[in-house]
Amino acid sequence: QVPLVESGGGLVQPGGSLRLSCAASGFPFSSYAMSWYRQAPGKERELVASIATYGGNINYADSVKGRFTISRNNTANTLYLQMNSLKPEDTAVYYCKGTRWSSPEYWGQGTQVTVSP
């Protein structure tokens, strides 16, 4: 059983939107802080957005502020990333991650987002 499974990636034109989902299973999702990371070819993996267990304490990378929205549904054990006004520089593999103090962290396998005319 894979703890985190991302979906929703794909090819979109500049200015378009995508909604990524990250389905969690096999661990207490509601007690984990969650985050989205991305990694573009030849670049380091970077933090895109994070959200606390209760849905607050939300933070974004400067490059996505005002365009991306992170949210979670603890009943559905799912994390989301709504991405609007997409730019070519948003092209990357997007990963979700779960963290909790003194517990192992979990990573998904990633979903490809490509922004191109």
The overall average pLDDT, rounded, is 97
Spans with pLDDT under 50 lasting ≥5 residues?
none
Please identify the oligomeric state.
single chain
* Portion in strands: over 45%
Class by alpha and beta content: mainly beta
Question: N-to-C SSE series?
Answer: EEEEEEEEEEE
- Radius of gyration in whole Å, from Cα? 13 Å
Helix content: under 10%
Main beta sheet? 7 strands, mixed
What best-fitting shape do the alpha-carbon axes yield? Answer: globular
First and last CA, distance: 37 Å
Strand elements, count: 11
Number of helices: 0
Structure, explained:
This protein is an all-beta fold. Helix content is 0%, strand content 48%. It contains no helices and eleven strands. The protein has strands spanning 4-7, 10-12, 18-24, 33-39, 46-51, 59-60, 68-73, 78-83, 92-99, 106-107, 111-115. Strands 2, 4, 5, 6, 9, 10 and 11 form a seven-stranded mixed sheet that branches. A four-stranded antiparallel sheet has the order 1-3-8-7, with no helix packed on it. A hairpin with a 6-residue loop joins strand 4 and strand 5. 31% of the residues are buried. The mean pLDDT is 97.
